[in-house]
Amino acid sequence: MLYAIETQEITKHFDEITAVNKVSISVKPGELFGLLGPNGAGKTTLIHMLSTMTEPSSGSAKVWGYDVALEPGSVRQNIGVVFQDTTLDDRLTGRENLDLHGRLYGLDGKTRKKRIEEVLSLVELADRADVIVKTYSGGMMRRLEIARGLMHHPHVLFLDEPTLGLDPQTRLHIWEYIKKLNKEEGVSIVLTTHYMEEADHLCNRIAIIDNGEIVALDTPEALKNSLGGDVITLELEKPDDISRLCEIYQKNGCANIVSKKMNEVFITVKNGERQIPHILSLASTAGISIQSVSLRKPTLDDVFIHHTGRAIRDKEVSEIETVGYKIRSRRK
Amino acid sequence: MVSASVNRAVQTVYTMWLREMIRFSRSKSRIIGALATPLFFLVILGAGFSSSFQVRGGGAFDKSYLAPGLIGMSVLFASLMGGVSIIWDREFGFLKEILIAPVSRFFVALGKAIGGVTTAMIQGILIMIIAWLIGVHYVSIWGVLAAIVIMFISGIGFMGLGIALASKIDSHEGFQMVMSFLTMPLVLLSGAFFPISNLPVWLKALVYANPLTYGVEALRFCLLGSSTIPILLSVFVLLIFAIAMTALGGKLFGKMRV
Question: Which value does ipTM take for this structure?
C-alpha cells in the first residue's frame, strides 16, 4: 500500500451548497498532514467523509487501503477520530471511557488493561484516570480523547481542530503530544485547523482549503517560499493610489504583488532589506506618499491571502454571518 | 468467522449495557426521585381512596389495588426515559463515539435497550418490595417472579418506543414535550388508578388502545391474582408491542445521523 489516505475527486453537496469540491489528496503512512482553512471551508466535512460519518456525493476515497463507501467497517477499525466537540461520557471516569472504547473495538481484557496504561502515560493523565470526566479541564478532556482515539492502535488518526478553544499554554502542550504520538506510535495523522501557526509548527505537508477546494498543497517551507521572498507591507495615505502603485511595481518587475487591502499593499521581494529603499524611491518619484513600511518573513496566512485574496480571519466573520443566515433560513 | 462476529455482537451489547449500569449506579438522586413519586401515590392515594371508594363487586380499593399500576408506571417512566436518553448522548457528543465504532448499530441499540430495561426493572422491583413492606399482599412467589418477566417485556416495548422517538426528535425541548404529552396520558389511561371494567365507551376505547393497560393488567394478575383483561391476552399484546417497537427503534436508530 502506497498511501495511508488517497482521495479521488471526492465531493459532498448539501442541498445547493457544495461543501467539498473534487478534492484529490494522498497522505503517506506516518505523515502528519494538515488541512488549513477558515471555518466553513469544508475541512470537517472532508474528515467526516474519510471517517465514514458522511457518505461522499461523488468521487472516492481509500483509507489504509479500504474504500470508505464500500468497506466502512474496515476503515473504522483502522482509524481513530477526535472530533471538534467532545464525545466523552462525562459521568464516567477517564479509565472507564478508555475501557468502553477498547471493548467496542474488540480488544480483550488483558490488552485493554495494558493499552490503557500506555495511552494514559502518553498524554500524562495517569494520575487523573479514576476521576469522573466532568471534573476535567478542557485541555485534559482533549488529551483523554486523543488517548482514546489511539486505544485500538489505529493506523490513521484524524484530529478535527485539536486545540480549538484551548488557552495558548495548553495548546503548546497538545502540540507536543501530537508530535510525540506521531513519532512514537508511528501513526499517520490528518489534522484540520484554522490556526496557521498550528499547521506550520506541526505538519509535514499542508493542504490549504477554501470553499471546499484545495488551493495549494506542499510542505510549509515550500508554501512560504512559493511567495518569492520576504513580505513587505506598505501603507498608503490615499487608498486611490493603490492601483497606480501596483502598476509601477509590476512594470519595473521588482516585486511580486500578493494582495491589496483598503490602503495596504502586500508585496514579496527577494532580499527585502536591500530592496526597501528602491521600492520607496519608486513610490516617491510617482508622488505617492507612504505612511508606513514593514518587512517580515512570509507566514502561511500570506500564502492563504495570495491564493484566495483574503485573510483567514476576514473569512471567518462573513462565515459566521452566513452560518447564522443558514440556520435561520432552515428554521423557517 | 461466525463465532467471531457473534462474539463481537455480544461484546457490543455488553459494553452498552455496562455503560448504562455504571451511569445508573452514579445517579443515586435520580433513583431516589424515581422511587419517591410512585411511593407518594401509593401511600397517599391508597389511604385516601380506601377510605371512600370500593371497587364494584366488593374488592377493597386501596394500596394493594394501586401497587401494580405504580410498578407499571415506574417501568414506563424508566424505560421511556432510557430510550430517549439517546438525545442526551447526541447533545453531549457521546453518540458520535458509538456511531464511529466498527460495530453494528443494531447491537448498540439493543445493548442500550437492555441496559435501560435493567434499570427500569430494578426500579420496578424496588417499588414492589417497598409496597410489600408497607403491607401490600402478593398472591405467591411465582406471581412475583412472573411480574418481573412482565416488567421486562413491557420495558423492552417502551424502550423501543423511546429510541424511535429519540431518533426523530432534534432537541431536548422536543423531549420535554414528548414526556408531557406521552407519559401522562399513557399513565392516566392505563387503569393504574381506576378499575377498567365499567368505563364509558370513549374512555374504554382509549384505555384498550394503550399498551400500558396490558402491562398493568398483567402485573395485577400476577401479583394480586385477578384482572379484568385475561392474562394470556395481556401477555400476547405486550409481546407484539415489544417486538414491533424493537423493530421500529432499531430501524430508526440505524438511519440516525448525528
Answer: 0.84
